[in-house]
Amino acid sequence: MIRLVVLGSGASLPTLQRHNTSVALQRDGDLFLVDCGEGTQLQWRRAGLRFSKLRAVLISHLHGDHINGLIGFLQTLSLSDRTAPLDLLGPPGIRDYIRAAREHLGLRLTYKLNVGEHSDGVIYEGSDYRIACDTLDHGVATLGFALEEDARAGRFDTEAAESLGIPAGPLFGALQRGESVTLESGKVVEPSEVLGPPRAGKRVAYCVDTRPTESAVRLASGANLFLCDSTFGNDLTEEAGRRGHSTAAQAAAMAVRAGAERLLLIHISARYHDSRQLVSEAVAVFPQSRVAEDLMELSV
Ligand SMILES: [Zn+2]
User: Residue 7 Cα, ligand 1 centroid: separation in angstroms?
Assistant: First the structure.
């Protein structure tokens, strides 16, 4: 299961209702922070998330609303006596940013920070999942991310197992793990005889900030949950394009093309005090749309 906590859902101007866009992604015991604007570490605490479970910080791009909280966040990890290495994965330029903080801000960490600059491909490999990135269209080097689980074994067909004379118990478990088993009679049963077709792993995609673009559609392809830049409404479509963003309706159109299951509108401009306009414009294109709110939790 993948759990997601929205730490912030707003665009560049933080408000009392919406912090800068940032999310925590949890895959079993592994936690990932995606983007780190001002105040993110406090939101992390409000959400009750544990610093010790953090495996990597992913930064989409080097605009202030996505990175202004990073140095403070990294320092807090030091103050929490972290010693486990941490991956910091972002676009080209992030290494320089950290180097400058070490040089000019006296950034000293109690743990090894492995900084990786990326433009596409797999950037993190978990035990049975991975995180991939691709470059979006925002005017500066900007990454979208997708966390994808490995395909899971097919459903176990208890009736088929019983009709093959397999006793309920450990042999069921072995078959579910993909192992063939030998019955007392000497008969060998292969997993394919009792398992349905493999099921796709869960997938969550995060594409912020961006104009509508093919790479975002690819990252969101078949996603169970797609978080997408929805800075503006239809009233400001031109401005969205000019400033490298998407409207809620454009995010919805990408969700349709990607065959996504659910869309979460995020990176909402402070001018939309009432987000119902954005939701209705998105729902008109893609019914499974809703708007992110700070500290909202979702699971897929
Ligand atoms: Zn932004």
Answer: 14
pTM: 0.91
Question: Over the stretch 30-68, which tens digit does the pLDDT of each residue have?
Answer: 999 999 999 999 999 999 999 999 999 999 999 999 999
Q: Residue 95 C-alpha to ligand 1 middle, in angstroms? A: 20
Ligand 1 midpoint to CA 196 (Å) = 43
Spans of all domains in the chain: 2-152+200-299, 158-193
Strand 289-291 and strand 263-266: pairing? parallel
Pick the CATH number of 2-152+200-299 from 3.30.70.580, 3.40.50.2300, 3.40.50.300, 3.60.15.10: 3.60.15.10
CA dist 211 and 82 (Å) reads: 38
Active-site residue among 28, 30, 35, 65?
Answer: 65
For the question of residue 65 being annotated catalytic, the response is: yes
